[in-house]
Specification:
Number of strands of chain B: 11
Structural class of chain B: mainly beta
Shape of chain A: globular
Strand content of chain B: over 45%
Largest interface: A-B, 22 and 25 residues
Largest sheet of chain A: 6 strands, mixed
Shape of chain B: globular
Distance between the termini of chain B: 36 Å
Largest sheet of chain B: 7 strands, mixed
Strand content of chain A: over 45%
Number of helices of chain A: 0
Number of strands of chain A: 11
Radius of gyration of chain A: 13 Å
Helix content of chain A: under 10%
Low-confidence stretches of chain A: none
Number of helices of chain B: 0
Low-confidence stretches of chain B: none
Oligomer: heterodimer
Mean pLDDT of chain B: 93
Order of helices and strands of chain B: EEEEEEEEEEE
């Protein structure tokens, strides 16, 4: 069956450290993968997109990798700050218009 | 642009009542999505439209749910009759489509409680 798994529901790290979130999938062949941030009571907000033929993408303190052989994406936040505390969702882009989301990982960055 | 606009933001209704959620997508976006989010099931795609035409409604839980998009700037999601298990946050979202890699822009959600 098709499945998207994000590592542990919650991740707690110390300010200044690098947060690494994982997204694993089975029985999908995504054309691209996206990461979103969701704050309590708000809708998800787009952060980064990586296509199937790309290995790595960066944006400021964010980095995402995509390994279609391992069927895995890693999302890194370097020099983490308490303001980075939120839930992060990965989404698989399956075809024109349609994306399927993981359940998310809640990150807490402690000062 | 004001972003995706949803109404109402919060609704509390009694079981059996009809619920209508409304959405105005970002102007110029070709795709409109309705998602539902719960603690148990996460973010689920209910239905999506392309150029006002429903493309995939396989996520609609049952016949009590219906969605329409009469024009490019308006969509509704209706639940009739509502049940307590329909309590969730319903998100409307829109995107430009494949040309930009399908970045999805979400509204702030409609928080539905059915008692």
């Amino acid at each position: 069956s098709q499945k998207i798994e994000q590592n542990s529901e919650a991740l707690n790290i110390q300010e200044g450290k690098t947060a690494t979130l994982t997204c694993n999938y089975t029985n999908y062949s995504p054309a691209y993968l996206q990461w979103y941030r969701q704050d309590p009571g708000r809708g998800p907000v787009f952060l980064l997109l990586i296509r199937e033929n790309e290995k790595e993408k960066r944006k400021e303190r964010l980095k995402v990798t995509f390994d279609t052989t391992l069927k895995q994406s890693l999302f890194h936040i370097t020099a983490s700050q308490p303001a980075d505390s939120a839930t992060y969702l990965c989404a698989l882009g399956l075809h024109a218009g349609k994306s399927t989301f993981g359940d998310g990982t809640t990150l807490t960055v402690k000062p | 642009d004001a972003g995706v606009i949803q109404s109402p933001r919060h609704e509390v209704t009694e079981m059996g009542q009809e619920v209508t959620l409304r959405c105005k997508p970002i102007s110029g976006h070709d795709y409109l999505f309705w998602y539902r989010q719960t603690m148990m099931r996460g973010l689920e795609l209910l239905i999506y439209f392309n150029n006002n035409v429903p493309i995939d409604d396989s996520g609609m839980p049952e016949d009590r749910f219906s969605a329409k998009m009469p024009n490019a700037s308006f969509s509704t999601l209706k639940i009739q009759p509502s049940e307590p298990r329909d309590s969730a946050v319903y998100f409307c979202a829109s995107s430009l489509g494949t040309g930009t890699g399908n970045t999805i822009y979400f509204g702030e959600g409609s928080w539905l409680t059915v008692v």
